[in-house]
Amino acid sequence: LTDTFTLINDVKIPVVGFGTWQTPDGDVAYQATLDALKAGYRHIDTAAAYGNEESVGRAIADSGIAREDLFITTKLWNADHGYTETQAALTLSLQKLGLDYVDLYLIHWPNPVAFRNEWQQRNADTWRAMEEAYAAGKVRAIGVSNFQVHHLEELFKTATIKPMVNQLFLNPSDTEAEIVAFDNAHNILNEAYSPLGTGAIFDLPEVQTVANRLNKTVAQVVLRWSLDKGFLPLPKSTHTERIIENGQLFDFELSAADTAIIDNLHGKFGFHTEADEAKF
Ligand code: A2P
């Protein structure tokens, strides 16, 4: 859990992050984050929209772990796209987290419903504010989430710093080949949210077969597969034993045959579609 990828700006990022989407604010988010930190996770992924930044921040403070040993990500919500809006939203997120800086700040979605006719300009303005926050040391890296190729190409027209990360819905069912290849070509790290397909992976007997053979769990096999693809998985759980389990990925390997079985799950529980994106 202390292994790292290195971003294009030389910032090191632990290869597995603890996901907190759909983790309720309050005691649940507090305890889950604290459990993750006790289990050795050093990378926590939250977002303004998850509504749990305060609880996550409290757990970080109570863990007693030195700030420089942690990697904390949060995200700008859709209502806050724009230059001054981004500045204010980042200030509020830092305040809620109780931090002077975050390690990574992401634009959560490229094309919010509220700004459908002006998303290009909004993203350009947002990005300018994020570049300034980066220069000011309020964030150690900046990036995006849920961006497809055309969203990034548009951003590149005005950006002076390229995104370092693109966080995507990535799992064996949905591997997003086009954007992943584009990101790789631009040295943008692909982070995988919902690496377990928000739990759908547990319904597939194929992975269980591989897990049984390796004496590992389904979650561990799929997270190992995610790492092998060069993704940075962000598994979410609110159960202590699962949180621990999801971090134990470094004492086994998938054979080519195991990998092929998991690769074959493409489409098994659906894709992230434009219709899904249109909701945000
Ligand atoms: P829970 O939070 O109740 O433990 P994803 O990371 O793809 O979003 O998937 C999260 C879902 O998978 C949640 O429903 C979570 O449930 C469940 N989950 C996470 N880790 C495990 C695990 N090791 N075994 C079984 N279910 C898990």
From TrEMBL:
Keyword Nucleotide-binding appears in the UniProt entry: no
InterPro entries for this protein: AKR (IPR020471), Aldo/ket_reductase_CS (IPR018170), NAD(P)_OxRdtase_dom_sf (IPR036812), NADP_OxRdtase_dom (IPR023210)
Keyword terms: NADP, Oxidoreductase
UniProt enzyme class: oxidoreductase
NADP listed as a keyword: yes
Lineage top rank: taxon: Bacteria
One Pfam family named in its UniProt record: Aldo_ket_red
EC number: 1.1.1.-
MF term (GO), any: oxidoreductase activity
Domain NADP-dependent oxidoreductase: 16-265
SUPFAM superfamilies, per the entry: NAD(P)-linked oxidoreductase
Similarity field: Belongs to the aldo/keto reductase family.
PANTHER family: 2,5-DIKETO-D-GLUCONIC ACID REDUCTASE, NADP-DEPENDENT OXIDOREDUCTASE DOMAIN-CONTAINING PROTEIN
Protein name: Glyoxal reductase
Organism the protein comes from: Periweissella fabaria
Organism classification: Bacteria, Bacillati, Bacillota, Bacilli, Lactobacillales
